[in-house]
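Re: beginner question about structure tokens

> Can someone show what the tokenized structure looks like for a real chain? I only ever see the sequence side.

Sure, here's an example I had lying around. Input first:
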Amino acid sequence: MATITNRIVFHFPVAASSTKIPILLRVLQYADSPLPNASTLDQMALEQSADINRFDEARILAENLLGLIHTTKAGLALTSRAQVILKKRESIQYDLLHYIFYAAWNEEEPMKDTRSWFYRAICDNLWSMQEVVLNREMRQTFTQQLSNQITEDFQFVPDISKVSIGIQTMYNGPIERDQKKRPGKIH
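And the corresponding structure tokens:
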């Protein structure tokens, strides 16, 4: 189960994998002109990828959270931030995306971009653990720790204690990104 309230979200849908964002950006980069709408971009990215899952969630994150895609009168286009990222080597692109995901949440606007807060909390907790084997027991423990951290850090939100996250959210979301690079352990 994902952590969702009326106004805040603490998970990344599986379909929003960070590996999809560079594909979306490259589709826009190589398009002859801005693409007319979001569904066209999503379809073109799906056709140019081995991924069988839709791209709309990743596109929404790239637009709204990361500021990499914007809508012009002519259609969807890359922002200057996205253009800078695309000029870098692929490995650097992922480092830059990590930084943007990590830094998007702002303490002064705590209800905005809570997916970024969640991503940051996962990164910080994993960093403090250093090396960890992500077996089922560890994921359950880690999930409970993050759930407690959400309750504590967002105690000003009515009914925040009723919100829960599940280990599937943990495994299929941000942790999955690191495991694709280093199966079995996160260093």
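Each token stands for a local structural state, so reading them left to right follows the chain. The first strand starts at residue 69 and ends at 72.
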